[in-house]
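Escalated from tier 1: FE2/S2 (inorganic) cluster holo job.
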Amino acid sequence: MTDHTPESEHTAGTAVRLDQGHVQGTGGVPDRFENPGLPPHVHRAADLDDRAARRAERIVAGLFGLSMVGTLIFLVAYFLVDVETQTFVPVVGRTSLSNVLLGVGLALALLGIGLGAVQWAKTLMPDEESVEERHPLRSSQEARDGFVETMMEGGEKAQLTRRPILKGAFLGSMALFPLPLVLQVAGSLGPLPKNDLSVTWWNGRRDEQTGLIVKPEKKLRLMTDPENKPIRPGEVTIGSVFHVMPEGLLEEHGTHKLTEKGKAAVLLMRLKPEDFQDTPGGRKAQEWGYQGIVAYSKICTHVGCPVGLYEQTTHHLLCPCHQSTFDVTNDCEVIFGPAKRPLPQLKITVENGYLVADQPFQEPVGPSFWERES
Ligand code: FES
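Tier 2 regenerated the structure:
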């Protein structure tokens, strides 16, 4: 049966009172609350009885005293107890007496202060509730008019209204003034990511003068980092991981070497053929690898941390920063964490007995950025 009492009904656009506490607006959303007021004040024992007040005072003082004892225990343990001295603590077993006393002392010191403060507030401090009504924040009309008048008067005295050229020059200088700051900030953000993350040492090196990319004349060998040794496929055993740099990079010097190393870093590992998933990703990973050896960018596609951990049993690569997890058996698809894209794969093959890059990364390495797909 439907209840048709006035309290249960409301008409669209009309606020209907439901109970004492609040007023129901349209769509069931309260649009204002009534002030429920304060409950009647109940006096505490210490408010009415002097003996109860003194007892409460002694309890509070005792708790603060307990805190002082705790601090003293801490100081004694710190300065006088030999750290090698052992004691037996139930559950824990044999442990350092100094550590036990330090812990107990600190706990008592903090607990005593906390409990003392709470007890003091609950029993002795004034507990009358007081209400301060909130006044409107808007200034009075008189104050607002006064402000406008002062501003106009200031403008008048500065002759801004009588001298339009001066006014225009002043406004123009103020409008242009922030531009150098804005440009300075924008210019300090470094090159556009598209220009930078799309080109790694595997593609070639960027000519400083022309900005053009000078492609390598041959396929670059994969070199161990930091030994700088080329790698034979037989050295990459199941379960091992190699940290790899492109040939020629480790001989470089200067800060650009660090930048290039940061972008070109590759992880190399070997899986059994049957470990790869029978998916488009798994098949592509195998195809771009060499006899189960696969090479992936080490730069996490979330915000660019080095992916540092390879779980041999699950064939997962883990990024330590925010736990993004990439599945090597399926072309390093993201299976957990905030990264949104797989790690780019480096296509490899063998030349003269050593692993080489058959082609550079086919997409920018590292995190996503706005013009990545353009
Ligand atoms: S940078 Fe790798 S998960 Fe965030």
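The chain has two domains: 45-126+149-187, 205-359.
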